[in-house]
Prior knowledge:
By secondary structure, the chain is an alpha/beta fold. 43% of the residues lie in helices and 22% in strands.
Amino acid sequence: xxxLDNIAVFVRVVELGNLSAAGRxxxxxxxxxxxxxxxxxxxxxxxxxxxxTRQLMPTEHxxxxxxxxxxxxxxxxxxxxxxxxxxxxxxxxxxxxxxLGLGRRLVASGIPDFHDKYPDIExxxxxxxxxxxxxxxxxxxxxxxxIIEDSSLRMRGIMECERVLVAAPKYLQARGEPMEPQExxxxxxxxxxxxxxxxREYVWTLQTPTGPQKFEVHGPYDTDxxxxxxxxxxxxxxIINKPRFEVEPFIxxxxxxxxxxxTPPTPVQFAAVYPHKKLQDPKVRLLLDFMxxxxxxxxxxxxxxx
Length: 306
């Protein structure tokens, strides 16, 4: 097992680029991760990484070994999943990612309940509004809001979510409430955007009488954290485009007001995506079933004001 552990550390270092990140991911110290790499290099008789001050880059030998090592670990995972399916006792670790706001409201609170139900399954949850590379970073399940275009992934739709444009009464009093979508641009409204590397929401697509139409809106600042956007809107700094369930409590207490309700944004798909092979893993199926039912229920409760 020690040799397999060394291989697993090596694979994560290649994928994450440094010992510290790999150590955090595998719950070991950087020193332990470093020692495992050294043991592997000693066993193979070659250097696997070129070391720089910030990143470890695989050597030619390391690149070749990574390809085979990855296949070995995947084969072991598949074999363990097959045994779990036969025994009816799923066990192991699931790596999960979700956007910050959605993850906090819907996913994170369900992890302890899931573990209570399936105590032999560990869950490692990573929350980020960045577009996480599922394949590169070894993610088993990613919960996402938006269009899923990666053909290397499978998708399980959870529900279609209504989106709304909202702003604080303070902002609308100061700048005027837009009555037509064109006024967002013509009157230079402050439209606050969620932006990060790989983000696609650089325009707002609204449902107009002639069909969906894209509007290249602008604002004085943007962020990669959806909850920061909501905070800015609440403080009267501009207009935001959000799933209704995320801002429904603020709409109900009149801290935010829905605008352009006759030409709302197009709905957004809430879904779980995962690599093709992962659905064969019983523990992944269990998590998908558990979270799909839970998230649907919580979203409906939020929209109903419960």
